[in-house]
Amino acid sequence: GENVEQHPSTLSVQEGDSAVIKCTYSDSASNYFPWYKQELGKRPQLIIDIRSNVGEKKDQRIAVTLNKTAKHFSLHITETQPEDSAVYFCAASPPDGNQFYFGTGTSLTVIP
Amino acid sequence: ETGVTQTPRHLVMGMTNKKSLKCEQHLGHNAMYWYKQSAKKPLELMFVYSLEERVENNSVPSRFSPECPNSSHLFLHLHTLQPEDSALYLCASSPGAGGGFEQYFGPGTRLTVT
User: Fold this and answer.
1) CB-based contact, B99 to chain A, within 8 Å
2) Range of A45-49, B14-18, B57-61 with top mean pLDDT
3) Of residues B4, B43, B99, nearest to A31 (C-beta)
4) pLDDT grade for B2, boundaries at 50, 70 and 90
5) Beta strand ranges found along A27-103 (DSSP E)
6) Is the pLDDT confidence value at B64 over 80?
7) Which pLDDT score, from 0 to 100, does residue B101 have?
8) A64 touching chain B per CB within 8 A
9) Which residues pair with A51 in a beta bridge?
10) Residue A28 touches partner B, C-beta closer than 8 Å
């Protein structure tokens, strides 16, 4: 089965700086890569996703890049704000099943 | 409000108890999921239902028994649990099953097994 690794497990940045979270996956057939944000005590919510036919996707201050050859994808948050503080999860999903494989999460703290 | 609700929000049960978790989605989705979220571990997909039919069962112990009476409701029946089963149990729904659909999560049930 698929194996998703996520780094770093914790990340602290100054407000206004950028944050980058990286994930690797093992199954080259995986073709859907969502990122979820989970604030303390709240449910995970999708913030951005990318499919394998695209190398980069951007939505305001967040962007995701995908390198299919190296089997890794990254979340980039620019101009971080305190409200970006949360746990971020990456996931990979192969096309021929009903599985989602999540990373272990990155706890991001944005220091005002 | 994402349209996925879960009850109860908190549950404490002994190892010999029987209890059930309930999930309801108001989004008109066709697929529903149960996940287990433990500290410092990845979200673990437990069960997937598509149009009320179970399509995935990820080697979950038989002390967890899912039920999906219709596409809007999902239950997780619990019996003779172990302390290591204490976790946050999240329900999710999506427009369809299979990869490529956004998962809409409920708020979760915080389960403590004593």
Assistant:
1) yes
2) A45-49
3) B99
4) low
5) 32-38, 45-51, 56-59, 62-67, 72-77, 86-92, 101-102
6) yes
7) 83
8) no
9) A32
10) no
For chain B, how many residues are written?
Answer: 114
Average pLDDT of chain B is: 91
Residue B28, sorted as left (phi over 0), alpha (psi -120 to 50) or beta, turns out to be: left
Mean pLDDT of A81-101: 89
List, as one string, the DSSP characters of B13-77. E-TT-EEEEEEEE-S--SEEEEEEE-TTS--EEEEEEETTEEEEE-S--TTEEEEEEETTEEEEE
The CA distance from A106 to A85, in Å, is 10
For residues A29 and A102, give the distance between their C-alpha atoms in angstroms, rounded to a whole number.
16
Cβ proximity of A51 and B100 under 8 Å = yes
Measured distance CA(A46)–CA(A92) in Å, rounded: 13
Instruction: Indicate the SS3 state at residue A84.
Output: helix
List the helix and strand counts (H, then E) for chain A. Answer: 0, 11
Instruction: Select the residue of B55, B105, B108 nearest A98 (Cβ to Cβ).
Output: B55
What does the block give as tokens for B58? 């990820």
Q: For residue A15, what are the CA distances in angstroms to A27, A59, A101, B65?
A: 36, 19, 31, 46
Task: Check: CB of residue A30 under 8 Å from CB of residue A49.
Answer: no
Rounded to 5°, angle at Cα B109 from A22 and A88: 10
d(CA A25, CA B32) in angstroms, rounded, equals 24
What is the token pair recorded at A21? 């979270």
